[in-house]
Amino acid sequence: MDFADFADRVCAVENESADLAVTSLVADLFVDAGDDLPVVARLLLGRVVPAWDSTTLDVGPALCHEALARAAGPNVTADDVADRLAAEGEIGAVAASLDLDGQQGLAAFGAADPDPLTVAGVDARLRDLAAADGPGSRDHKVDVLFGLFNRADSRSARYLARLVLSEMRIGVGEGIVRDAIAEAFDVPVEEVERALQVENDCGAVAVRARDEGASGLAAAELVVGRPVSAMLAQAGTAADALDAWESIAVETKFDGARVQVHHDPAGETRVFSRNLEDVTDALPEVVEAVSDLLVPTILDGEAIAVDESGDPLPFQEVLRRFRRKHDVARMREEVRIEFRAFDCLHVDGVDLLDEPLLDRRERLSNALSAVSGATPSPFRVLDDADAIADREAAALDAGHEGIMLKNPDSTYTPGKRGQNWLKRKPDVETLDLVVTGAEWGEGRRANHLGTFLLSARTEDGFATIGKVATGITDERLADLSDRLEPLIRAEDGTDVDIEPEVVFEVGYEEIQSSPTYGSGYALRFPRFVAVREDKAPADADSLARVERLVDRG
């Protein structure tokens, strides 16, 4: 499929507002995609690799602007592109407004009249770009992007620019892709949903649905070494749980980082974060903890930091290890990590996603019974509010965050936040919000970003909800500035627009209605708590959750 044809179809999707019509347009595109089907399915969601693969293009605004300026000709600079972005508001419109098609440098592709861009060709070049590393990689990335933009018509350039900056924003989410696969290939949407949970790759699932139908989707299996999205919890109380279930599985809620451990005794052990990032090298203790397992196993659990006495340390200590790529041995001496497993997704060729929680816990206990380093999380099935309160008090006295309340009969639903897992924390309410802007500081903080604009996730982007400047030490402020400055997309005086990549955990006293921010709400007395290294913007709290918190009052 020519990329220009793909861009035309995507434009039609973007301009359609009705969900059912969008689904039908996407379904038609899938039917017509041919051999490009897996690539098309991923590109619609702004992905080049499957969702389980943490590989990124690692292209920031500055690099994209440079490539666009070079493709536009000698009279356009990267600063000109940034200025246009400030005026237009989104990179796709800027790319479409530039005269890119047929500019200088075509000889770099071996012909004065190169073949048109194809979906497969774009995919190959972007994968080449993602693989670039080390000295000279930045120049190589600019060359790759220049070559793509230089061969693109205005509409193709619009979606190429959005794609490389992970800003497709065409109104197509995973739900629409799921429904479109079902419609395109006449398979039950429930089967598509399950296959997506298991394979975590919309491209592979689309091909299964087309080539093998419902039976092929049903045959999708977990693969040791290929992570799946974690099942999620929502806030709740013991009363909520007792109203919903006859009994409650009560677990300790650790103040750690979620990890998924894939162990293959005939191969290797890999550890993945909640964002599906491979953190194996940073957490050798977790690998060692499961090294004695005799069969292929996938475990869900928490990596927690502990002191010399084995007492838990704050979440921020765990994060010191998660980002570590060098001097791991030294950091291991400074921050000791232990693994607490609380679920088992796969054992010895058998997938357990559809098994009840109690059965999965039994398989977990059996798997770890002969393993000295891995410890299952404390677990009790209770049906009495006082007994649950005693368990919570014991967890808090031990220095943990609280308790989890789980439906004993619940299956494991990757990536879903439902009523079957409830988290109970007595702490002050916090929100995980995306940094979308900032202001340069004043006085001694003049060289640093001093105030950060926060946004909640919406279906098609982000909605501002407030600013935070308190709770940040000068040292932390310098670290945050170093991290966020490369993500600056535009500046207007002291105000800057920031690429939405970093998530802050923010405490607050109250959520109030406010016309000041795009969400319609504002946080009263917000304070910075931590950077959520384990969360991507797609995992941040949604505006819908903010509204539920307001309604809960």
Report what the structure shows.
This protein is of the alpha+beta class and 553 residues long. The chain has three domains: 47-164, DNA ligase, ATP-dependent, N-terminal domain (DNA ligase i, domain 1, Orthogonal Bundle), CATH 1.10.3260.10; 232-424, D-amino Acid Aminotransferase, Chain A, domain 1, CATH 3.30.470; 430-552, Nucleic acid-binding proteins (OB fold (Dihydrolipoamide Acetyltransferase, E2P), Beta Barrel), CATH 2.40.50.140. The protein is 39% helix and 22% strand. The strands form four sheets. Strands 12, 13, 14, 15, 16, 17 and 20 form a seven-stranded antiparallel sheet that branches. Helix 6 runs antiparallel to helix 9 (154-164). The radius of gyration is 24 Å and the shape is globular.
If you compute it from the alpha carbons, what radius of gyration comes out, rounded to the nearest whole angstrom? 24 Å
Helix/strand structural class: alpha+beta
The dominant shape is globular
The percent range for strand residues is: 15-25%
Mean pLDDT: 91
Query: Regions with pLDDT < 50 over 5+ consecutive residues?
Result: 103-113
CATH fold node name of the largest domain: D-amino Acid Aminotransferase, Chain A, domain 1
CATH-defined architecture of the largest domain: 2-Layer Sandwich
What is the CATH homologous superfamily assignment of the largest domain?
DNA ligase/mRNA capping enzyme
Q: How many β-strand stretches?
A: 20
Helix content: 25-40%
Largest sheet: 7 strands, antiparallel
